[in-house]
Design brief:
- A hairpin with a 3-residue loop joins strand 14 and strand 15 (339-341).
- The protein contains 15 helices and 20 strands.
- The chain starts with a strand and ends with a helix.
- Helix 9 crosses helix 12.
- The protein has helices at residues 24-41, 62-75, 88-97, 130-142, 162-171, 178-184, 197-207, 235-243, 271-285, 299-306, 318-328, 351-363, 369-374, 394-404, 445-464, and strands at residues 3-6, 9-13, 51-56, 79-85, 102-106, 115-121, 156-158, 187-191, 211-215, 248-252, 259-262, 289-293, 311-314, 330-335, 339-341, 380-387, 409-411, 416-419, 424-429, 435-442.
- The chain folds into three domains: 3-160, Alpha-D-Glucose-1,6-Bisphosphate, Chain A, domain 3 (3-Layer(aba) Sandwich), CATH 3.40.120; 165-374, Alpha-D-Glucose-1,6-Bisphosphate, subunit A, domain 3 (Alpha-D-Glucose-1,6-Bisphosphate, Chain A, domain 3); 380-464, Alpha-D-phosphohexomutase, C-terminal domain (TATA-Binding Protein).
- By secondary structure, the chain is an alpha/beta fold.
- It holds the Pfam family PGM_PMM_I.
Amino acid sequence: MTLIKSISGIRGTIGGKVGDNLTPVDAVKFASAYGTFLKNSQPATRNSKLKVVIGRDARISGPMIHNLVVNTLVGLGIDVIDLGLSTTPTVEIAVPMEKADGGIILTASHNPKQWNALKLLNEKGEFLNGAEGVKILEIAESEAFDFSDVDSLGEVTVNDAYMDIHIDEVLNLPLVDAEAVAKRKFKVVVDGVNSTGGIIIPNLLEQMGVEVVKLYCEPNGHFPHNPEPLKEHLGDICELVVKEKADFGIVVDPDVDRLAFISNDGEMFGEEYTLVAVADYVLSKTPGNTVSNMSSSRALRDITEKHNGKYQASAVGEVNVVELMKSTDAIIGGEGNGGIIYPESHYGRDSLVGVALFLTHLANLDVTVAELRASYPQYYMSKNKIELTPEIDVDAILVAMTAKYAHEQISTIDGVKIDFANEWVHLRKSNTEPIIRIYTEAPTQQAADALALRIIDEIKAVISK
């Protein structure tokens, strides 16, 4: 059982002891810290109440955590716009639309069902930066909370229209052409992992004239497989795409900010190539720069340069990608885990935007999804992890690996990334789980896997010393 406090929020497993897991006490404490941070940040001359937008995915623990967080904010004198079942990108677009002071998404993203989390937004509907996250952690540690008296309590307004509003916003994007998509009469299988993606993705597709085959689209929080959209978890949809003779399949994680496609032949399109394909379309219409994180495929760099743009890589983490996108005027970016960030909509990973742009791209081409995938630069990744125990010194491991490969091109902006001539490895401690992530990429899957195994063996050798 685990509780992880970081600058991006608080994430943990449900149940257990206070301070060791995401218990009701921890949820109230962290919600109190966030609300107090917002109150401390408002101008002294402000008379009106603060306002926060809250939405949640369909996790079993969602209603419990939701009630605790909402009523904690009410107790602080903060008004709440309650979206109920929602998605991360939906909450992100709702915050500025509501002129709110912040937002909280109750979701543990791709983590299994025993996890939940509070993901925190600023008034722009974007994730808080590092300095703001540190302040909230300090407030939580000090428990310097000042709750409101009975006449100053916050009020709750329920608004369950925002998933429809979100769909409308996506359909109105200039590069989304629902009419062209409808003419192609696509058939698509959707795996919503029994969360809110099972509601919003089929609705979007149907409004674009797509025939939808639903798989695990009941938002009951009982995930039918590991919710991280990786190949080893997606056998059911791969089989169903072929059985239904569908054009492709769509998989999202529980909070709908990660997007993966299944090609018409039942093979993975590759979550790394979600961003590559969407960027290819966007850059073909509006040339410009791109950004992804250091653990993402080189293929985006290649596609960007094909369209005469400039590619740059940020540290892992959505807030880091967004910061670099803003400073380089990137017109599209994201993360290789299937996260699409399209500023024309908003600065947040959004599977709806990715789906709509991908469908429009496909509608403009006379190829299958498998043929589209084959047209892109061929790179293969291996994504591995090593479970951490408290006695393991991660920093010492990274220092040792840096020294071992000092003769190669190395970046220590975020963990350690070692760039070889034709392949790379990125080692970093996860912000969300007690693990070291080991990502490799090479021209063949065999080479990527071999590099990963070699690095894992070298890390284990360091640990055993």
